[in-house]
Amino acid sequence: MSTVQEIVERCQALYDDLDFKTVQAWKAAQPGRRAIGYMPVYVPREIIHAAGMLPVGILGGGDQLEVIQGDAYYQSYICRIPRSTIELGLTGRLDCLDGMLFPSICDVIRNLSGMWQMLFKDKYVRYFDVPQNYEDDIGGRFYTQEMQAIREDLARLGGREITDEAINRSIEVYNENRRVLEQLYAYRAREPWQAPTSEVYLLQRAGMVLPVEEHTALVRDYLAAAQTEQRPKRDNARVVLNGTFCEQPPLGLIKSIEMAGCYVVEDDFMLVSRWLLCDVPSDGDPLENLSKAFLHHSASTSAKYETRKEDKGQFLLKQVADKGAEGVIFAAPSFCDPALLERPMLQEVLAAHNVPYTAFKYAENSGQMAPIREQAGTFADSIKLWSAA
Amino acid sequence: MNTIITPPTSTKKPAAVQKEDAMWLQKELINRNYHELATAHEMNRKVSATFVPGNLNELLMCFDFARSLPETNALQNGMRKKSGKMIMDAERDGQSEDVCTYVKADLGMMMGGEIGPTGEALPRPDLLLLSYTGCFTFMKWFELIRQRYGCETVMLHVPYQGEGRINPNMRDYVVKQLKDTVIPTLERISGVKFDIDRLRQYMRESAKAEEDLVWTLQSAKHRPSPIDGYFGAVYYIGPIFTAFRGTPEATQYYATLRSEIEERIRLGKGPMTPDGEMGEEKYRLVVEGPPNWTSFREFWKMFYDDGAVVVASTYSKVGGVYDFGFRHDPDRPLESLAEYCLGCYTNLNLPSRVDMICRYLDEYQADGLLINSIKSCNSFSAGQLLVLREVEKRTGKPAAFIETDLVDPRYFSAANVKNRLESYFQMIHQKRSGSTH
Questions:
Q1: For residues B339 and B347, what is the distance between their CA atoms, to the nearest angstrom?
Q2: Do A127 and B162 touch (CB under 8 A)?
Q3: How far apart are CA B66 and CA B304, in angstroms?
Q4: Interchain CB distance below 8 Å, B98 and A361
Q5: Segment B154-199, tens digit of pLDDT
Q6: Domain residues of chain B, as ranges?
């Protein structure tokens, strides 16, 4: 059995690999294999999987990629993730991808889909719209058709039909992955000293490039290995981290929050793998089932419209309650419209329920962690030392 | 209640600013709408707020709503130098310095007692019609207002033209939302039953006005151009992009405007500017992106002082792209409203936007492209540097890039903008001189 250290080292290597060698190796193992990239926040990976293709999460270049060309495509007031993604593309690092999906999350990623169409004319590129109407016969019908369009596109690209049976099998595989990730998150919330978020994060990132079956096994291995090691328990503040669903914070930032005295017990990293909140039925019409799961059982995040005012912030409040959190850290990428426009509304709801919070901004290439550590440390102190509890 | 009001007439004009009659009429229409809004509740009218791109003015009129357009409120406050304080008030209240200044100007205005641009207090909307067209921020904007003021909100999600076309699934989705969600909500809140023939009548009026608007904007193909297709067009699009599309007043406004422009063409005149008739037309430009509102006249002056006229702009299509044939169609009213929403400029993908700009450069015989990149507006701005390169590559015409903001005066650096514009005009001049050798 692998040790925690071995598993984490493997995940770290995957995280550090900006050339997507794992994807290249997966493709090279069998001629004709294809890989499809996708950006945050959600795409139904089951359809890509059912096409026999590898879904690959593209989350920008992090803090290790020197962005030279990408900066020439963006003004200073636009976030980092599109410019580092362009850099990855222009430097050939994404050549292993046969296509890219750009989900509906914000205007920047939306427009990046058009840029990709112009810059990479030989690749399959699609903007993937998701409904903001959650009625089955309105938004559901639209969404099912959108998924059907992707299914037909990928069938053409792969040269084979994607049957209902194949999608249902893939739904099973992803249900299993979602279940094991929920186990991981539950374990971390129960014993956060045993599963630090810097490790949970790397495990999640590994799921962006590994085949889903392999990722499920990896998370299981980690859970088993983590329980064999006893780590020191600290009197840290339990927090929910919110706002990190698209451009990623540097790993150093996550470590800094932990070092400052916080246990992150819930987060919105890599929402694609935790978007659907329950098992999707794997019999019947798969697109209809995926649609119903999206409409009625998916995570609440700022990329989605909240139909009722009274529901705003309830998902976050429930996360706080379910995971026994004592506060919320809002960490938003600079110039991130979804996160920054949502934040005041969530803060208002938290304040009304006496949940403490703090907020700061970051960029994927942020280098100075001292201010973050000080702020998170002060926040943890305020909870542990000075709160009414 | 009948929303039809008597046609406007021009009133006495201050001497300091030169405007065409149609510009004065436009101002009067806009001000009248503010007065209607201010008195709506005492007149027992319900008030709706909705956004310019994808606005459903004809539909709202079917339910007798008074109609408020938050972006227009923000830009009017910007032009009147009121927006700076509003933005800072919203930032002090917790809004990020990074996000859209239209949103913050609107929130700041509401925090300051909801005093509108004309000085009259604006009522709290009874309904926020969230027509989510071409801009993600719209969604958050109305969520923020709903959060603060508890206004009822109805969503019309308009899918993006990611593939550069409207497919039947997109149109059907919008129509279905109109039928099953939007119209029932409008009926419930207004207490007025939906009458599709009334909608058809308004749409007939819309189409007439659209015809004259297109003629006006395309008059810039003449040399010299009788209009400025960006700064001047801001006035021309005012009625049709806001609360007047579908009204006889708008039809009359555009007929008046058209006859004025016809006269200018007959006399060989260039555009009217705030300082009077423009002098010699030296440079013909296409502009991409919204204008800056806080220094609007100063910004425009930088162009006409150097003999630069904008012959076509993408901003003048933000509330509807009519120049490639679309008209509101009373024979298929809901489908036509859907196509209108789907077709607004910022709902087009980037390759379509590049195609459109290249076409303008060709058809309007422009010397080059200027991009005014707006900090607030990712919908417009993200990707503009690639748009610039593509357009240069395809047309061989020079392009330039300046950066300002919509209504935040802190982001308008007059000296920088002027320097860049002067350099750009020189570049065009040199390129032109070079091509004659």
A1: 11
A2: yes
A3: 37
A4: yes
A5: 999 999 999 999 999 999 999 999 999 999 999 999 999 999 999 9
A6: 21-436
